[in-house]
Specification:
Blueprint: E1 12-13, E2 20-24, H1 28-39, E3 44-48, H2 51-60, E4 65-68, H3 77-87, E5 93-97, H4 102-110, E6 115-118, H5 123-139, E7 145-148, E8 151-154, E9 159-162, E10 165-167, H6 171-182, H7 190-198, H8 207-220, E11 230-233, E12 237-240
Parallel strand pairs: 2-3, 2-4, 4-5, 5-6
Antiparallel strand pairs: 1-3, 7-8, 8-9, 9-10, 11-12
Helix pairs in contact: 2-3, 6-7
């Protein structure tokens, strides 16, 4: 078991050639729990005690996933989540925090977090959530750039333009759009989108999908009321028609 020097250790712990999980958590007791959980499942683990060392380690390595607390020294967890996903959107970030209100979960997922587990949590549940987030990322083809109609999207830079004019998409809107583009012409149910893009338990209702599609249409469609690309298939779901 790796050692930490204080209850708020900003240092980094690493070992092993296996797929790496980056844990950013300032509480030593929770550090030890998470370290043991992932090591016993065969992962290499890096543990950082504050936001800045978490960002530095993320930039210096290529972790398979990040487990992130919200209440951190130096860089607050929400800000760190946004920074990580803007730099490397393909890396899953799972939030672990005592804050459990739905509004906070929605905000974090808008910032790009892939899932949210509330403390106290079951170790088995957390492991399942992290592994599910990694599987979702692996299953989605890594489309770097894509154009349709008058829209141009660069997923690596998380930038988008319509008629040459920059438009702002949230991290989760990029994630949803990428999934549609990876599955052209295929009808995608709300349940599939919740499972594959959000993680089914992340949001309380399937209306979340409808609301997110409405926002994407408003930003990308020539006429959001008569969508050309992001179409509704009544009684079944949605499909992307390039």
């Amino acid at each position: 078991m790796a050692q930490t020097s204080s209850d708020r250790n900003p240092g980094v712990l690493s070992m092993g050639p296996e797929a790496q999980i980056l844990v950013v958590e300032d509480d030593v007791r929770m550090q030890k729990i998470l370290y043991r959980l992932f090591r016993e499942s065969g992962y290499s683990v890096s543990v950082c005690g504050d936001g800045q060392s978490g960002l530095d380690t993320f930039r210096a390595t290529r972790p398979a996933a990040v487990v992130l607390d919200l209440m951190l020294p130096n860089i607050f967890g929400r800000d760190l989540c946004r920074m990580l996903k803007s730099e490397r959107p393909e890396t899953p970030v799972v939030i672990v925090s005592a804050i459990g209100e739905v509004a906070d979960k929605v905000l974090l997922l808008e910032l790009g977090a892939d899932d949210y587990v509330t403390k106290p949590f079951s170790p088995r549940e957390l492991m399942a959530r992290v592994q599910a987030a990694m599987r979702r990322m692996q299953k989605t083809p890594k489309v770097a750039t894509y154009s349709f109609g008058d829209c141009e999207v660069d997923f690596s830079k998380m930038s988008a333009k319509r008629n040459g004019v920059p438009i702002t998409l949230t991290a989760h809107e990029f994630k949803l759009l990428r999934y549609f583009i990876a599955n052209p012409e295929r009808v995608l149910s709300r349940e599939e989108l919740l499972n594959e893009v959000w993680g089914y338990n992340s949001y309380p209702t399937t209306r979340t999908v409808d609301n997110k599609l409405l926002k994407l249409r408003q930003k990308l469609e020539p006429d959001a009321a008569e969508p050309r690309y992001l179409r509704t298939v009544h009684g079944a779901g949605y499909k992307f028609v390039p």
